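REQUEST FORM: STRUCTURE PREDICTION
Request ID: SP-0412
Submitted by: Lab K.M.
Chain count: 1
Length (residues): 341
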Amino acid sequence: MINTNGITSNELFSTNKFIQDFCSIADYIGFSRVEFAQAIGLSIECIDEPQGIVALHYIIESYRVLLDYTKDELLGIQEKSLPRGAISLMIKSACSEKTLSKALTAIFHVNRVCQSPITTQLIIENDIVRWQFSLVTKKANFSLFALTMLTCIANKILSMLIKKEVPLIYASFVDEEPVNVCDYQFLYQCPVKFNQQYNEIVFDKSWLSKPILCQYKDVEKQLQVPLSITNYSFGSLGLIKQIKSIISLSPKSQFPTQNELASKLGMSIRTMQRKLELEDSSYMIIKDEFRHKKALFYLEHTNKELDYITERCGFSEVASFTRAFIRWQGYRPSQHKPKKV
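STATUS: Completed
RESULT:
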């Protein structure tokens, strides 16, 4: 099956399915569910909530917590580990090459030298490149999750090395379509196929000749937790994006005050307001856009009741939420049709 509908950028939210997967892995490797939840800053109720949504921050935090626990970049879900620092070593080797083609060859060489449990190859067919992956996990139900992590990292490595976003033509997986297929839209920004013959990400051949512009010293810090490179930005992180990231962590959209927000950003309220004015924005505008995106995510990817969505989007009553939604979309929340994925 291939999913193409609603492929849009999602910088804020995910369903909690990936967090549930991390929690299952934690339990499997001997890290109790309660300890894991405390370590990432979420309650067990939030992790287990049917059709719950969380800030994308918690996916990276879950990986970091289990990486610290296992010292294994595959989190202990294979018979043979991938030692901490292995992916960083691959990127360090790749950064010394001249083209993306040579850099990928260097990555494959380090992967073999490390005796990595990951089998990977590059297949060039006409004008496309198919980067394929395979591995065997201790439990079959960890397979798609592990391959999702690997392909997400690999996808971002391509862009990191040449300092330009490399769009994928499609991504495919051997496993069956997961219940959280909507999350794969923000991960890959391309059509995603399941029940396929190969686990692979596919991109245009022309990218292979692009020069390597990445300096290892500039990305070394991100590589300490490999999955965190999925948040890597080539430019400075804009103030608006920083504010969205902060308020996405607010419980039930209990937004911080401007004073609290400025403090978290390490600046005065006036400086924050002035910088936002330069970006033609304000804290009120950012909160409004945040509520809008969160409401759409709930309506498109969950079956939550309207009063629940109202509360989680920071409104005190359904009537005020409905008025805001009509302002955003031009129609009532009850009239919104979920996207088919």
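NOTES: Confidence is low (pLDDT under 50) at residues 1-9.
Reviewed by: T.R.
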